[in-house]
Amino acid sequence: MKKNDFVVRFAGEGGQGFLSAAVGFASANTQAGYNAQTFATFPSQITGGPTWMQARISTEPILSRGDFLDVLVVFNESAYENHKDEVGEGGVILYDSDALSLENDGRNLGIAFDKLGKTTGNARAANMVMMGALAELVGMPMDVLEDFVRLRWGNTERYGTQIVPQNIEALGLGKKAAEDSGFSLGELAPPNKPEYDQLFTNGNHAISLGAVHAGLNLYVGYPISPATTVLLWMEENLVGDGKFVYQVSSEIEAINAIIGGSYGGAKTMTATAGPGFSLMSEGLGFAWMAEIPCVVVDVQRGGPATGLPTKTEQSDLFSAIHPAHGDVSLPVIAPGTVEECFYATVAAFNWAERYQGPVILLSEHSLSEREQNFKKPDLENVPIENRILYKDGHGYLRYDGPDLSPMPIPGRPGSYVANASEHDPMGDTTHLPKRHIEMTERRFKKLELLEDGSYESENTESKIAIMPWGASKGPGLEAFRQLVANGDDISWYFTMYLNPLPSELLQELKAKDLVIVPELNYQGQFSSHLRSLGVKAESIVQYTGLPFKVIDLVKLISNRIISKT
Q: With contact defined as beta carbons under 8 Å apart, do 484 and 477 qualify?
């Protein structure tokens, strides 16, 4: 029987080059029509330290990183000891026989990657030998990898004429070595190549693409893991008339710069992580107070303080909704997949312009680093909302009345004061209690404009539901499908739009006896938020710095269902 799915993990020390090998292997398979998803975790030091990255390849859409490994590729003894127990039944552990000496336990396969690679004349061909061996182990046609090599290094002016034939030779050497070993994991089923164009990218780049489509004019940022690649992407790609990218000296400067840019009429964005987001607190309060649109991306990592800067977590929800002092409730959108990172970013800009204030796009480390294929967006069907501009004469009362009002452009008719203090209709400071009541109610009323977000639902008649958020969507959905297949009566819900929730969704959730929320934090932050809205919600929490495994979720959710019934 042919296999529809396999998982390979590369583990060793940072700087050994296998991260690019994993991405290359996944990319090669997407080019052939397979689905692929990568996942990486590494220490916070610049080089060295225990690092691993894996790729899951499938004929079907991929929801999670996978529970067990089919192939483990180890680059040192420590990696072997730390990861060997995650190899599934019938799996193979692949290693360089000249670098390591592992006992023969029936699943260890040693191949002289480096030595064989150097025989091709390319001193860096060891990874190609390894990929050839992998292809043989899973029964993958070699032309998949050969086509990848030609596409990746086919520019002879840049790479020379020898690199392609050398790498193809290395693939063949790896394939033969694995073939001679007698090891096999079966044959990978042929791909179901889609009829539509696809993208293969990570969450941070998908966010960047979404921002550009939404009309981003000004990006200001400060480097911080795991959000730095957004800044790097913008520096390379946000170019042209009316576009500007700038790296500032702190997150405080970043938030104030994008507020100023938006006040001047631009669509603006910055991206950061938890520590930087904390520094933006006062600025976010100002943008809420003065009613100035902007988008802030928080790519969550383990916290608090420096915490786990290269691990994943979902622990910034409280601070995202209420980042500033006083009565503030910011709109929050949290994508669940790399594909949703694109659409969530467009939605964040649309929301910011619609209600005239800051919007938080809450991503995660596991999304930022994950490479995945998805359908190329049809941009003509991804609507963009633009600012309602004031176009009349002078004497405009920007903050008059309880409803949304058009925004003037400084230097044009209708100039007003964008004031961080409580203000009168013109924007000038006032401390009158009546005025503070009026403006507080105005600011919160505008959130009602955002209650039209979409959501997913299945088996809605069940009185018990599972509703993850963010990147816990994939493992949660895979667990839900297994539970239903096992005969469990449970509903499925998911939305990117966390605050405010879609009004219809909230009513459905309030009717449930129990809403189970898998989330990667200690406090059960989203279930706490749901309970504040009248939903009977409980969390399944994990705070390891890693995403959920489906096998664990199935067991934990089953136990909750049993205890409730």
A: no
- b/e per residue, 387-400, with b = 16+ CB within 10 A? beebeeeeebebbe
What one-letter code names the amino acid at 425?
P
5-13/50-58 β-pairing: antiparallel
Q: What is the mean pLDDT of the chain?
A: 94
For the chain, domain boundaries: 5-181, 200-381, 388-450, 456-564
Query: 449: closest CA among 510, 496, 385, 401?
Result: 385
Q: Residues 444-480: pLDDT tens digits? A: 999 999 999 999 999 999 999 999 999 999 999 999 9
274, 225 contact by CB (below 8 A): no
Q: Do domains 5-181 and 200-381 have the same CATH topology?
A: no
**Radius of gyration of the chain, Cα coordinates, nearest whole angstrom:** 26
According to the model, what pLDDT value does residue 336 have? 98
Output the pLDDT for position 222. 97
CATH of domain 200-381: 3.40.50.970
What's the token pair of residue 260? 């100023």
What's the pLDDT tens digit per position in 495-520? 999 999 999 999 999 999 999 999 99
Q: Identify whether 194 is preceded by a cis peptide bond (ω within 30 of 0).
A: no
Tokens representing 392 are 């009349």
Structure tokens at 179: 């073939």
- pTM of the predicted model, to two decimals? 0.95
* Residue 139 to residue 152: CA distance in whole angstroms: 22
Both tokens of residue 360? 């938080």
CATH number belonging to the domain at 5-181, selected among 3.30.450.40, 3.40.50.12160, 3.40.920.10, 3.40.50.150:
3.40.920.10
Alpha carbons 378 and 372: distance in angstroms, whole number: 18
- Contact in structure between 2 and 34 (CB atoms under 8 Å): no
Which residues in 110-143 are b (16+ Cβ under 10 Å) and which e?
A: bbbbbebbbebebeebbbbbbbbbbbbbbebebe
What fold does the segment set 456-564 form as a domain?
Answer: Rossmann fold (3.40.50)
Pick the closest to residue 300 from 116, 490, 487, 526 (CA basis).
526
CA-to-CA distance for 242 and 22, rounded, in angstroms?
Answer: 38
pLDDT class of 45 with cuts at 50, 70, 90? low
Does residue 378 have a pLDDT over 80?
yes
State the sign of the Cα–Cα–Cα–Cα dihedral 389, 392, 395, 396: negative
Over 109-168, what HEC string results?
EEECHHHHHHCCCCCCCHHHHHHHHHHHHCCCCHHHHHHHHHHHHCCHHHHCCCHHHHHH
Q: Tally the C-alpha atoms within 13 A of residue 156's C-alpha that lie toward its C-beta.
A: 4
Q: 29 and 214 in contact (C-beta within 8 Å)?
A: no
Question: How far from each other are the two terminal CA atoms of the chain, in whole angstroms?
Answer: 39
SS3 of residue 52 by DSSP: strand
Task: Report yes or no: 1 and 186 within 8 Å, Cβ to Cβ.
Answer: yes
Asked if 35 and 337 count as a contact pair (C-beta separation under 8 A), the reply is no
Spatial CB neighbours of 228, under 8 Å, sequence gap ≥ 6: none
